[in-house]
Design goal:
By secondary structure, the chain is α+β, with helices and mostly antiparallel strands. It has four domains: about 55 residues, no CATH class; about 55 residues, Ubiquitin-like (UB roll); about 60 residues, no CATH class; about 240 residues, no CATH class. It has 17 helices and ten strands. It is elongated and about 95 Å long.
Length: about 450
């Protein structure tokens, strides 16, 4: 049996050729170029199975060059007559223009035109014809990698995918790509909202902020704001412990110092994508900051009403920041228990008592700050215990993971990382779209819109 297979294996060994063909005017396919040739042999190791990475890129390069050569006859400016004298135009040879595909770079012939009378010349390029010399699939990949990694790391990753160093993947280009696409998203928040969204009876909205180190001289940091909008029934295992993942949501973000204009605009767009109508009731959770509540309040004219809740997640964080002695621990826990059950008066009384029993000035200040925080938000404190028992939303800890993803994971990963507002804002737009799962559906619209030719 082994001899049979050995003999048949020797018969199967043969040469191969990868050929690209084009059909001529007579309807016949003719050989244009041999892309790659070789011999099929027995693989001595897994390294010999198929083509290596660089070989695959070389094959793609040659195939693309051939296709582009065939397409180049169609690449010319759509100009009927001379823009100077109105006279007839004639062909005047071709010029080589840069085109960057996903893994390969090319020079494409683009037809030149000349005026037969005044000799005006048109020297178009891929960029002038289409608004960009970069294929949208390349821009998509650049945005996705740069949204997760630093620009220098993104450059390295993208070059490794292409098996060579490419100028189109340098950090400066990546920054410009993210800026252009991100700003287009920011400036057109409602342009790609589908018409067939199912209206929502109820939505949950959370707005929160994260501080980033600033590159602005004389300042330490600035705050970027994010919003998360989702339907209550999109919380996995909501009725069990309120700690499940959000299976569907829309996000918004802004780093601009513009009196909340962009974050309000994009938060409204995110809510509409989740089904906001004039009949929708909103449950809003915030940490008590005025700017966050102002974003939430902007939704009021677009919905049936807003139930505002001081977020339990942030309340617990503030309690954790206070250290108390073992002697006062029971009193401290009873104050927290009172708030858990919506009893602000009882909590304030216990915190006042705790303030009097605490000796350290630092701890006394924190207790007073917590007490004032709760009193200032008295109208947003609810019975959290009842809401948990009834399976209702009372905490933003699920959405808090989204805030971590949007801002901290990319923008605070290294201690030396500093940002300008204008620099981080477009990046946050792309991250918000990816986190919302809108990116995979709309990236072509975003990229083509960002590079649309202007008149």
């Amino acid at each position: 049996m082994d001899k049979y297979f050995e003999s048949n294996r020797s018969i199967l060994v043969s040469d191969y050729r990868i050929i690209i063909q084009a059909r001529n005017k007579k309807g016949n396919y003719v050989n244009k170029e041999v892309i790659k040739s070789g011999t099929i042999e027995k693989p001595e190791s897994i390294l010999d199975l198929g083509f290596r990475h660089t070989e695959q890129i070389e094959i793609i390069q040659k195939i693309q060059d051939n296709i582009l050569s065939l397409q180049s006859s169609y690449l010319r400016a759509e100009i009927i007559s001379c823009p100077i004298c109105g006279n007839q135009l004639a062909k005047n040879g071709a010029t080589k223009s840069t085109f960057n595909s996903v893994f390969t770079d090319h020079k494409v012939a683009v037809q030149k035109l000349v005026c037969c009378k005044c000799r005006w010349m048109s020297v178009p390029s891929v960029d002038s014809l289409f608004g960009t010399h970069m294929h949208p699939d390349l821009v998509k990949m650049q945005c996705e990698v740069a949204a997760v990694e630093s620009y220098s790391n993104a450059e390295d990753i993208l070059n490794k995918k292409s098996a060579k160093k490419r100028t189109v993947n340098n950090t400066m280009t990546l920054h410009k790509v993210v800026e252009k696409v991100g700003n287009y998203i920011s400036n057109n928040p409602e342009l790609h909202i589908p018409d067939n969204i199912k209206s929502a009876d109820e939505l949950v909205a959370q707005t929160d902020g994260g501080h980033l180190k600033t590159s602005e001289e004389g300042k330490r940091s600035f705050e970027a704001l994010t919003s998360v909008i989702y339907r209550p029934d999109n919380v996995h295992n909501k009725g069990k412990d309120n700690r499940g993942a959000i299976t569907g949501k829309h996000c918004a973000a802004s780093a601009l110092d513009d009196s909340l204009h962009k974050i309000i605009q994009s938060t409204l767009a995110a809510a509409k994508k989740e089904g906001l109508t004039g009949k929708t009731r909103i449950i809003a959770l915030c940490d008590g900051a005025d700017n966050c509540w102002n974003v939430i309040n902007s939704l009021e004219e677009h919905c049936a009403g807003i139930e505002r809740i001081l977020d339990w997640f942030h309340i617990t964080m503030k309690f954790k920041n206070i250290a108390v002695s073992e002697l006062n621990k029971d009193l401290f826990e009873r104050a927290k228990w009172s708030i858990w059950h919506g009893d602000l008066v009882g909590a304030a009384f216990k915190l006042t008592e705790l303030f009097g029993k605490t000796k350290k000035t630092k701890d006394k200040k924190r207790i007073l700050k917590l007490r004032n925080y709760l009193i200032n938000n008295y109208d947003k404190i609810t019975n959290y215990s009842e809401r948990k028992r009834d399976g209702l939303i009372f905490t933003s800890n699920m959405a808090e993971a989204t805030v971590e993803t949007l801002i901290n994971r990319r923008c605070k990963g290294k201690q030396h990382m500093k940002w300008s507002r204008d620099g981080v804002h477009p990046l946050l737009q792309i991250r918000a779209e990816i986190e919302s799962n809108d990116w995979c559906m709309n990236y072509e619209n975003y990229i083509l819109g960002a590079h649309a030719k202007t008149a």
